Amino acid sequence: MAQLDDLRKQISLVESDLDEGLLGLTDQQTLETFRIEFLGRKGRIARLFKVLGELDADARAEAGRLLNALKDHANTAFDKCRDKLQIVTLEGRITKEKVDLTLPGVYRSLGHLHLLTQVQQEIESIFLRMGFDVATGPEIESEYYNFEALNIPEDHPAREEWDSFYIDGSHLLRPHTSPVQIRVMEQTDPPVRIICPGRCYRRDTQDATHSPVFHQVELLWVEEGLSLANLKYVIELFVREFFGEGYKMRLSGDFFPFTEPSVQVHMRSRGSSDWLELGGAGMVDPAVLTNVGYDPEKVTGFAFGFGVERMAMLRYGIDDIRTFLINDLRFIEQF
Asked: What's the pLDDT at 162?
């Protein structure tokens, strides 16, 4: 009986310490420490169960009942504290993460397309509505597509290294998007109605009006019965769509190896006496048509090329082409 009385004292001490320990359970860490101390495999309650084997047979049943009652009490108390802490943690998380819909919103600026991209897409949209398709091609081209197929002779200055960026002896960064026209005509029977937008490269010294990298949109229309009058009408229609009413346009004679006759396109706004150059144009040279397998006796065509940067500069009054490349947000955010 002395052994049972001693066990009762130990159970009473453990129960007292357990109840006192419950008061200090304020987070998951202290809860786990409590579980290990009292309910772990080597905890205080588990150690008391080992005493059963040392008791007399008459006292063992009573001791087992007392120990099981202690264990049930500890498990019940632990479960209640765990559930309470989970609720408190969840409520704290909800309070911390909730959104106060009465607070004023915070403005976050969104990015947008660069002005050059906007202008190019608008140009494409205008010609798509006029029935033209958009064609693209590689930026690294062979001399054949860049020059020979376009009737540009070997002694032309554009074929020299000081004017073009050569990759090797026969390939270079395209100085214009005209090679796309040749590639399309080689694979397509007339009629052909395309525009060719893209990036071009020339060995120009960068200044307010020149850049070694620029964007161009060229147009090509090949069909039976086309004339210079058709070319003038298409350009006038485009100028009116892109710049709006009040602009005047004129054509002046020029020379390009791939068009005959060739013209320069100029325009001026209402109230201005200055004519501004838009780009070159002309009727496709019969030699170019022959190079792609077309019969120049049956079909004619015209083409023109405008710089995207120049179009943007004329429309928005930008006087320095370098402005497009410096990533100044004060400029970019205006458009």
From this structure: 66
Counts for the chain of helices (H) and strands (E), in that order: 11, 9
Q: What is the 3-state secondary structure (H, E, C) of 102-168?
A: CCCCCCCCCCCCCHHHHHHHHHHHHHHHCCCEECCCCCEEEHHHHCHHHCCCCCCHHHCCCCCCECC
Tell me the C-alpha to C-alpha distance, in Å, between residue 199 and each of 34, 121, 212, 281: 71, 14, 10, 19
* Topology given in CATH for the domain delimited by 115-332: BirA Bifunctional Protein; domain 2 (3.30.930)
Query: Sign of dihedral through CA atoms 223, 296, 124, 144?
Result: positive
pTM check: above 0.70: no
Task: For residue 26, give Cα distances in angstroms to 34, 94, 267.
Answer: 11, 18, 81
For residue 254, the one-letter residue type is D
Domain spans of the chain, in order of start: 2-97, 115-332
pLDDT digits (tens, 9 = 90+) for 89-116: 887 777 777 777 787 878 888 888 999 9
